[in-house]
């Protein structure tokens, strides 16, 4: 039976983290298992087999782990989109709203070239705010997002619809109900 586990089987749920009422979907258990990590990376890139992609963009922080592994498998480069103030070189910034307040993500202004075909990778799609901000950064640098790949989609929070409304192809390996 153990060799028929799905990606979802490797993800643990921690109740009331980071605060009461939240069911936190913890992918560290997926990353820690060699087979689980391999399955996740293979499934993230599977829909894009044969699709020309120049670069993988990963969203901070768990998107770095997945995006780096996907980029390695595809033998292409990786670009991190980071929280404000973390990148050392000249950057462009994109603000987006959170449940309480605002956040800003940044990318180096020379990380993506005009016409680059980009795959955006992260662990979780919730409201889609971070992913939308990341997509906008890619587009501002002239990149074309060919897809957005996530391990987990939380459909009730509407992120997929938000990204699809931007014309994005959205791929998720599993879904969890609730927020």
Provide the fold topology.
Elements (H helix, E strand, L loop, with lengths): L11 E4 L7 E4 L1 H5 L1 H12 L9 E5 L2 H13 L2 E7 L7 E7 L4 E7 L8 E9 L3 H12 L3 E10 L5 H7 L4 E6 L4
Parallel strand pairs: 3-4, 3-7, 7-8, 8-9
Antiparallel strand pairs: 1-2, 4-6, 5-6
List keywords for this structure.
179 residues; alpha/beta; 7-stranded mixed beta sheet; two-stranded antiparallel ribbon; 33% strand; globular
Question: What report would you give on this structure?
Answer:
By secondary structure, the protein is of the alpha/beta class. Helices cover 27% and strands 33% of the residues. It has helices at residues 28-32, 34-45, 62-74, 129-140, 159-165, and strands spanning 12-15, 23-26, 55-59, 77-83, 91-97, 102-108, 117-125, 144-153, 170-175. The strands form 2 sheets. It has a 7-stranded mixed beta sheet, sandwiched between helices. The longest helix is centred in the middle third of the chain and has 13 residues, at 62-74. The protein is globular, with a radius of gyration of 16 Å.
Mean pLDDT: 95
Number of helices: 5
Residues in β-strands, percent: 25-35%
- Secondary structure tally: strands: 9
Low-confidence stretches: none
How would the global form be characterised?
Answer: globular
* Order of SSEs: EEHHEHEEEEHEHE
What would you call the structural class?
alpha/beta
Question: What is the distance, rounded to the nearest whole angstrom, between the alpha carbons of the first and last residues?
Answer: 30 Å
Order of strands, widest sheet: 5-6-4-3-7-8-9
The major sheet is characterized as:
7 strands, mixed
């Amino acid at each position: 039976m153990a060799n028929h586990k799905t990606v979802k089987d490797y993800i643990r749920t921690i109740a009331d983290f980071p605060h009461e009422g939240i069911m936190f979907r913890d992918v560290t258990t997926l990353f820690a298992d060699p087979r689980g990590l391999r399955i996740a990376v293979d499934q993230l890139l599977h829909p894009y087999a044969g699709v020309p992609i120049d670069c993988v963009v990963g969203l901070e922080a768990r998107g770095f782990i997945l995006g780096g592994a996907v980029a390695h498998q595809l033998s292409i480069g990786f670009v991190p989109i980071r929280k404000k103030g973390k990148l050392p070189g000249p950057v462009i910034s994109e603000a987006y709203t959170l449940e309480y307040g605002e956040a800003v993500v940044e990318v180096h202004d020379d990380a993506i070239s005009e016409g680059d075909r980009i795959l955006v990778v992260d662990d979780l799609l919730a409201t889609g705010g971070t992913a939308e901000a990341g997509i906008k950064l890619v587009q501002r640098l002239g990149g074309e997002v060919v897809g957005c790949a996530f391990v987990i989609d939380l459909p009730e929070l509407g992120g997929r619809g938000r990204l699809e409304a931007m014309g994005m192809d959205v791929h998720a390996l599993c879904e969890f109900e609730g927020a």
